[in-house]
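As a warm-up, study this chain.
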Amino acid sequence: MKKNRRYLLLLPLLILGLYSCAEEQYTPTPYALDLPSHFSEPKIPFDNPLTVEGVALGRKLFYDPILSGDFTQSCSSCHQQSLSFAEATAVSTGITGAQGNRNAMPLINLAYHNRLFWDGRAFSLEEQLLEPVPNAIEMNLPWIVAMDRLNQHADYPSLFKQAFGSEHIDSTQVTKALAQFLRTLISGNSRFDQYILGQAALTPKELHGMNLYTTEAADCFHCHPFEERFQFTTFSFMNNGLDKEGEFQDSGLGGIVANPNLIGAFKVPTLRNIAQTAPYMHDGRFATLQEVIDHYDMGGQPSATIDPLMKHVGTGLNLSAQEKEALIAFLLALTDTEFLSNPAFSAP
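Now compare it with the structure written out below.
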């Protein structure tokens, strides 16, 4: 009888303990992605849903140099908001002064992308974000050291607990938080967007440029369509005739999948905010939009792996100077100034 009485005395304590644990559990707040009305819903990974706490944490990490070896660079060092989260140099320079061999891609509408990097080697944002921190020519910080820094930090353990339910921080949680923030970087309020929604007008020159863009005259629309999801990219990988046969310095996707038919194929970038993302191409070889248009007007360099959509090799497009000006005018209408200064995307 005494034994049963002892159990009865312990029962309230057990119930109180369970209640206390339930009280300490934290349920993150769902984050409502702000999408333009003409955009489709992106696919958010089921194991990394957007939350208010996760997005805020990712934003803080994005701007914090704590993830670089010498505390001098953050993600934002090579991805600046005013440049559509790209940078103004041909290739990036890491904390040791070492330079990479590729241009920093703009971080825009990444919620719609299923392969990352110019060569497509990452199949998710979470996978892509594992690379820059330990990369010797980028942030040059082993993940084990980065985790120690964050776990010893005055604020981060509690912020990670709010976002993911645990004060112990690992690289998976870091990449998930960063990915959540990056998926909120939605741009879809350029003058072009306002035009198609009936909220603004384009100039005659811009309309002429759009007509060139969407017809065989300039033949831009095959690789940078806006009818589907309004993203100005096919999300595919192409050899767009930058180099002649035997002159490739970078194999692109062909070097990742070991497929000789894909040598020189790189990701087709979005043209949204294109005026802010110079220099252009995977290696930043073109300084201006004029140079880019001149390249396509010439028809591209011949090679065995050039994409079939590059139909004007050897003949060129033969655009006039006025047509090139109109085409550039239309491309400038793809600038979303609100995105470039949105305080929700700026340093916290």
